[in-house]
Amino acid sequence: MIPYSRQSITEADINAVVEALKGDILTAGEIVDKFEAALANYVGTKHAVVLNSATSALHALYLAIGLKSGDEIVTTPITFAATANAALMAGADVRWADIKFNGNIDPQKISAAITPCTKAIVAVDLGGAPVDIAPLYEIAKKHGIALLNDASHALGSSYGDEAAAWAKQNSLYHAEKSEKNPKVGSLALASVFSFHPIKPITTLEGGAVLTNDDDIATKVRLLRSHGITKRTAWDSQMQSLGYNYRLSDVACALGLSQLGRLDEMIARRNEIANFYDDKFKNNHYFSTPMLKAGEISSRHLYPILLHPHMHCAKQELYDRLKEAGIITQVHYKPTYKFELYRAKYGEIELKNAEEFYKAELSIPCHQGMSDDEAKFVASTILKLCQKLDTSGCKVR
Ligand SMILES: *Cc1c(COP(=O)(O)O)cnc(C)c1O
After folding, report:
1. Where are the strands (E) in the chain, listed by range?
2. Looking at CB atoms within 10 Å, which of 99, 196, 300, 344 has the fewest?
């Protein structure tokens, strides 16, 4: 079986976890601080606050920016449900803007979704491909709302040359600190990462909020641990309601070990992705979204987009690939199509999101694959597409 994505756990990871387990403090200790410092340093932000999932991180972040009943966020429908769900958890409402060809939110479609109640735009770097950060930033600024980034797929992704030049011009990151383009997670007001096993690095379950904003970092820390601040040995204070969204020292030990290998894992995923790009160039059945100059993708996913005449063959392609031991997945069913949201907001159909849902299939692309497996995946997909095409898939 070749899954579309898979964690990578080494002996060093296991040893780091075992060491942490032998320590005196298993949670809320120094390894948490170390992991946070390493994350902030890697991405290039002032603060990193780790939590027990990206869903908790989104919830705490939405609360930290003051999102509440009567408020709205604007986000992409092509994301995991948690991006929108966490806004409902905060009591707020969700509006969706349509996407571009690569599955990321289209800045030109956002203004139409903004109302006097909008408090934030929440962008998602699908599969690790960076969003159009400059226009999103300008729209958020114009409307006086927050630009947040659910970068759950994109730890290790970097913005392209154009975005880097724009960021430098606007003094949005410390160019003197690095010759490299800014990383995804360093330019939005605050960004969320996920450490679920199939994401770029794992802490089993886990997530983080990264930001340069002191107030947001402080509030997320409070929300993460019951809203309680300690004053003296036993006199603590609690002014607002919090949760237990903490990530343990044992999990952070795994995260630290994984983070040390992240660039290596991304490099391997990019080798496979580049091989696919080459193999799939100008084929008759599907296209593959390309990156812009200077962009780096974590390659969390490798999406192929079936041409319209192949849409009706997607189920069969999925089934036949599975029979061949190749496990694919669709990212994502548009969030507004879930019963929960249909009951709340009625029928919504965004044209590009609907097309994308019909076209998209994420194929195996991860650091555990051999060259032979990548070749097998590519040739099997092309062969099956040819077969399904000639077997009479008609445009509906
Ligand atoms: C995985 C994912 C989440 C949720 O992550 P958890 O850590 O499992 O809570 C949220 N948003 C996106 C875009 C994701 O891919």
Report:
1. 47-51, 72-75, 93-96, 118-124, 146-150, 190-194, 207-211, 228-230, 236-238, 286-287, 302-306, 360-363
2. 344
Residue 228 lies in a domain: yes
Q: How many Å apart are CA 331 and CA 185, to the nearest integer?
A: 21
Per-residue pLDDT tens digits for 40-78: 999 999 999 999 999 999 999 999 999 999 999 999 999
Let me know if residue 94 belongs to a domain. Answer: yes
pLDDT (tens digit per residue) in 329-377: 999 999 999 999 999 999 999 999 999 999 999 999 999 999 999 999 9
Ligand 1 neighbourhood includes 54 CB (under 6 angstroms): yes
Closest atom of ligand 1 to 126 CA is 13
Name the residue of 7, 50, 51, 55 to mutate for ligand 1: max ligand atoms within 8 A of Cβ: 55
176, two tokens: 């003197």
Q: Could you tell me if residue 1 is inside a domain?
A: no
Q: CA-to-CA distance for 17 and 280, rounded, in angstroms?
A: 40
Q: In degrees rounded to 5, what are phi and psi of residue 296?
A: -120, 130
* pTM as predicted: 0.97
Give the C-alpha separation, 337 to 354, whole Å: 10
Q: At 279, which CATH number? A: 3.90.1150.10
Tell me the residue range of the domain where 312 lies.
Answer: 262-387
Residue 177: its pLDDT value, please? 59
Gap between the Cα atoms of 148 and 226, Å rounded? 24
Check if the beta carbon of residue 31 is closer than 8 Å to that of residue 61. Answer: no
The tokens describing 24, both together, are: 């005196």
Is 250 in a helix, a strand, or coil?
Answer: helix
**What gap in Å lies between CA 325 and CA 33, rounded to an integer?**
42
User: Does residue 152 have its Cβ closer than 6 Å to ligand 1?
Assistant: yes
Q: How many Å is the maximal CA-CA distance in the chain?
A: 75
Among 299, 321, 381, smallest CA distance to 2 is for: 321
Distance 207 CA to ligand 1 centre (A): 8
Report how far ligand 1's centroid is from the alpha carbon of 152 (Å): 6
Query: Do 253 and 229 lie in a common domain?
Result: yes
